[in-house]
Amino acid sequence: MADTQFDSALDLLRRLSPRDTKRNLQAITTLVPDLTEDLLASVDQPLEVRRCATSNRDYLLCDYNRDGDSYRSPWSNEFDPPIEDGTVPSERVRKLEVAVNEAFDVYRELYYEGGVGSVYLWDLDDGFAVAAVTPGSRSSQGAWDSIHVFESTDRARMSHYKLTSTVILHLATENDALGTMDLSGNMTRQVEADLPVESDASHVANVGRLVEDMELKMRNLLRM
């Protein structure tokens, strides 16, 4: 019964506007509370911003830095609201998380000219995982959110990366010729690559290159 309800909820959300995903999720989980955790882990939502009280820097809220009802700041590694025994990365992965966030701050300024971006890392049995979330372009006529999720598996002097990228796009306009037009949707693409790794610093360059290439490809597809 639970699997049927979960599949039906996903099917319903796919047919509704992505712009209203948060409101629709709240409605579904109010009706069927047992689906809350599975739906929050499976459905990409438009990104929200929160300020880290310790570092006074903004970060993005998503399922990848959520533990219960709290969210972890990539700048301070602290949860808001505070919780005991929250899941945090190991010391090595945390150092890498800080380095990747600094690199993506430069990427965000170059490509998006402002806004907020966040990168979250967590440990895997034979490597680590990365979630890079960027708000993209925003205006009164539309918004672009992108979420890039990596799995990195260590293989001697190489690392195998599996990247899943999702873009959430919303466009709206109103004029005499068209009337009111409101288009929303999302696109997901995957790619895998084996790249050389000499140290943890190599992961920063590899992840950045893969994200840059994927965003360029997805932009070109959306413009066609």
Short description:
With 224 residues, the chain is of the alpha+beta class. The chain folds into 2 domains: 80 residues, F-actin capping protein, alpha/beta subunit, N-terminal domain (Methane Monooxygenase Hydroxylase, Chain G, domain 1), CATH 1.20.58; 133 residues, F-actin capping protein, beta subunit (Aspartate Aminotransferase, domain 1, Alpha-Beta Complex), CATH 3.90.1150.
Description:
Belongs to the F-actin-capping protein beta subunit family. This is F-actin-capping protein subunit beta. GO terms for molecular function: actin filament binding. This protein has 224 residues and is an alpha+beta fold. The protein has two domains: 1-80, F-actin capping protein, alpha/beta subunit, N-terminal domain (Methane Monooxygenase Hydroxylase, Chain G, domain 1, Up-down Bundle); 91-223, Alpha-Beta Complex (Aspartate Aminotransferase, domain 1). Helix content is 35%, strand content 37%. The protein contains five helices and eleven strands. Strands 6, 7, 8, 9, 10 and 11 form a six-stranded antiparallel β-sheet that branches. It has a three-stranded antiparallel β-sheet with strand order 3-4-5, with no helix packed on it.
